[in-house]
TrEMBL record:
SMART domains, A to Z: MAM (SM00137)
Protein name: EGFL6 protein
One GO cellular component term: membrane
Domain of life where this protein originates: Eukaryota
InterPro entries on file: ConA-like_dom_sf, MAM_dom, MAM_domain-containing
Domain MAM: from-to ranges: 2-148
PROSITE patterns assigned to the protein according to its UniProt record, in alphabetical order: MAM_2
Record gene name: Egfl6_1
Length: 149
């Protein structure tokens, strides 16, 4: 498995230069490292912030599971989407509200076919809300399909 978490990960993360705002590091409550976050008050409604994970060493014709923690805290905070490079315009995962402030786990199967997925993009779309934040943490890539819960 490949640890792409932000505090100690080995992966190559890039801010998108053509979006409206950046994701920023935020300290974890427990004090062990940080996660990436977008506060609800950043930008204007429908503005986008994209954080891209560059995947350079994935083997073609094999499958992977991307597992990550996410949090959508606050009223009408917006949408969090995940895109794979070879399916640019359609999100493979999307969430637009949290039931509460807790961290949850997202899982995405990545199938490497004729085209290799060379990046995963986490996109934050700003909502109407003024409080709360979107957060992403503990991004891990493992070989094989995602396990059932």
């Amino acid at each position: 498995s490949v640890d792409c978490s932000f505090s100690r990960g080995v992966c190559d993360w890039k801010q998108d230069a053509d979006d409206d705002f950046d994701w920023n590091p935020a300290d974890r409550d427990r004090g062990d490292g940080y996660y990436m976050a977008v506060p609800a008050f950043v930008g204007h409604k429908n503005d986008m912030g994209r954080l891209k994970l560059l995947l350079t060493d994935l083997k073609p014709k094999s499958s992977y599971c991307l597992i990550f923690s996410y949090r959508l805290a606050g009223e009408r905070v917006g949408k969090l989407r995940v895109f794979l490079a070879n399916k640019k315009n359609t999100p493979v995962w999307e969430q637009n509200k949290g039931k509460d402030e807790r961290w949850r786990t997202g899982k995405i199967d990545i199938f490497q076919g004729a085209e290799t997925t060379n990046s995963v993009t986490f996109e934050s779309e700003r909502g109407k809300g003024k409080t709360g934040e979107m957060g992403v943490d503990n991004v891990i890539l493992i070989s094989g399909l995602c396990p059932e819960d």
